[in-house]
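TICKET #2291
ISSUE: user wants both folds in one file
ATTACHMENT 1:
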Amino acid sequence: MAFRFLGLILLPWTLQPAGAQQLTQLGDPILVTLAGHHLPLTCEVSYPYTPAFKEYKFSYYHIDLQVRQSPPISANCNKAPGVENKTHTEICSFTLTSLHNASATGTYYCQVEWPTRKEKGEGTFILVRDAGYKEPPEGSKKLLLFTFTGLLAMLSILETGLLIWKAKKWRMSAKKILHQKDPGPAGCSADPKPDQAGSIYTALQSRQSEVYDCLQNDASIPPSERSPPTQNHDVQVAHSGVL
C-alpha cells in the first residue's frame, strides 16, 4: 500500500505527455547568401520544465545537395529559469561561419537531444552563391552600344529607302492613269513633263491650262482642215468647259 502511494506521488515526474517537447526554426524557410558571409539562424525550444527535460544538448547540422549529412555542431541556448511543470520556451541562436563556397548550399537543421528523446527542426534551405552581380567589362559595354546603334541606323536607312521607293512607284502609277484617261486632241502634247519634284496636283493644274490653249489653237484652224472630233475629244472639251 505504501509503495502504491509513493508511485502516485512520483507519477507527475516520471510520466510526461507525448509531444510536449517541440523545436521550431524561426525565420524564412529559404535564404540566399554570398560565399564568405556569416548567416545567423534562430531556433526555439519548448519543453515541460521538469528535472527530466531541464538538461539537453542543442546542435545543428546540414544536408547538402548530394544528400550528405555533416557532423552536428554544438551551440548554446539562452537558458532561463522557469515554473515547475509548466511549458518553458528558450531561444537558441547560432551563426553559420562555414559558408565558404557554393558547396555549402543545403538544408540546415536544428537539433535537441534529451536523455530519452530527440527533436529536430523543419530545416532552412540556404543557397550559397560564389559571387553576386558583376559589371561587364568596359570594352564589352562599348561593343554592345556600337552594335545596337548600328542596327538602329541600318533599320532607319532601310525604312527611308522603302518609303521613297513606294512614293516613286505611286507617282508613276498616277501618271500612267492620267495618260490613259486623257490622251489629248491632235496637235497638242499628250505627255506634259512636269517637274519631277512637283506634286501631282501641280501637274494637273498645268495640264488644265494646256487644254485651254489647245482649244484656242483648234479654233483658229479652218473647218476644212480640222480632223473629225472623236467622242473622247467631245467629252474632254465638255469636261474642260465645266471646269
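ATTACHMENT 2:
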Amino acid sequence: MAFAAMTVKLAVAVTCALVLASACHGLELGYYKKSCPRVEAIVRDQVKKFVYKDAGVGAGLIRLVFHDCFVEGCDASVLLDPTPANPKPEKLSPPNFPSLRGFDVIDAAKDAVERVCPGVVSCADIVAFAARDAAYFLSRMRVKINVPGGRLDGRRSLDSDALNNLPPPFFNVNQLIGAFAAKGLDAEDMVVLSGAHTVGRSHCSSFVSDRLAAPSDINGGFANFLKQRCPAGSDPTVNQDVVTPNAFDNQYYKNVLSHKVLFTSDAALLTSPATAKMVSDNANIPGWWEDKFAKAFVKMASIGVKTGYQGEIRRHCRVVN
C-alpha cells in the first residue's frame, strides 16, 4: 500500500513537472479516487452520448474549457447565467454569445454526478474532464490526456473580462504569443492549442472583413468557396476545417500551410519562422501534434486554479451557491 501511494504521488509530481512549475498547485491525478471514484466515467458517458449524436457539441466542449480558463482561470465562471445582480456574465460576452456551446452537456454531467456524489465535484473539473473526453472521442481515441482534478468554482463572471482576455481572431503572431504568455503558456503551446480549430464552426462575421473583404494570403479558390457560403447580409456558420470537419486531427496544420484557414490568427502562424516550423512539424510528423496537445491541454487546464476560500463547489453550474 505504501509503495502504491508513493507511485501515485510520483506520477502526479512528474505530470506537474512536465507542465508549468506552479501550474498544478492544488491539482492531483485521481483527485476524486476516494470521494467520488466514478466521476470521470460518469462524465465520459455523458460526453459520449452527446458527441455521438452531434460532433459539433464535442468541438464546443473543447472551446468551452479554453474560454473558461483564459478568463479568471479554470473556475467554471463561463457557465454562470445572468442574474439581476449580474446581468452581463462572461457567457453573454461577444466572444462567447451566441457561438459557445456545450452548456447542456455540462448540466447533464453535473446532474449525473450529483446523484452519486452530492456536493463533491466542482463544475470547473467537469468542464476540464468533458473537454478531455470530447478530444478523445473526436480523435477516435488517439488523443489521451491525463487531467488532474481539484479545481474550485469561481464567483465572478463579467462580460468585460472575456473581451479583455480572449485573443480575437484578428490577432497577429506577436499578439497571440503575448496573450498566451500572459497565461503562463509559451509560443509552442499557442501553436499546439490553435490546432483545436480542426473541429467546430465559425460565424462568417468572425473572418469576412479581414480575410475576404481585405487583401490577405488566403487561397483564391478557398476564398471563393467562403464567399458562396457567406452571402452579404447574413451570418451563417462554416466549418473551420473543410477537409475533416468532425475529426480532431492534424489537418488544421495542413490547411494553414495551404492557406485554407478562416482566421487571421490562423494564417499568422506562418509569419514567424519559429511558429511556421512548428506548423510544419505538426502537419507532417505522425502523432507529433496529438502528443503535444495532451501536454499543452494540461497546462492550459491549470491556469488560475482557485483553492480554499477562493472558490466553492457549486450545487448547480449556472448559479453560485
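RESOLUTION: both attachments delivered.
EXTRA DETAIL ON ATTACHMENT 2: The longest helix spans residues 2-18.
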